[in-house]
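Action item from last week, closing it out:
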Amino acid sequence: MTRRATGGRKGARRPEVRLPALEPYEGGGLAPDGDYDGLEFREADLAGQNGAGARFLDCALTGCALDGTRLSRARLLDSRLTGVRGVGTNLAEATLRDVELTDARLGGTQLHGAALERVLIRGGKIDFLNLRAAVLRDVVFEGCVLVEPDLGGARLERVEFVDCALKGVDLGGATLTDVDLRGAATLEIARGVDRLAGAVISTGQLLDLAPVLAAELGITVEG
């Protein structure tokens, strides 16, 4: 259900993931273009495996290791990921729809060119998240820490940041529509402050960003 924010802006629609009774994943390794339906991956070591182009429908991944896991062009649908961890997970051009990602510990995750729709990212920490040229629609970041996320050239529509930290974000070339940044406890923009049109920020955030905005506009501020 669409939640309407203040000022006529549309709020993000959160996913409603209701998993059926799941069968345990028996191992054997991921396969390119594999089909995984109604499975529970619990504490599975998927590091270095190749699941490019695979489809995950009604799945739960809990406590899984995703170091260097190749999931480019994969489709994650109506699924829940909890406590996953890893460095260099490749989800380039993947599709995430109706997905909950909770308490993840990830670094260098590649999501460039990906499509995220009705996705909730709650808790955890993600370093150097690559979302260049990705499309984010109805995405909520809640209670998480994002260190130097790259949103260059991305399109964000109905995206909310709630009680989370955005450190060194790159918005160069990004397009924002109905993006709510007011809930970001930390908002540090390394690049692309001129792309904030279409976003809403708080008065305090405006004051914090004043030096960056002044520099962008070529304004000299002297006491």
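Closing note: The chain has a mean pLDDT of 94.
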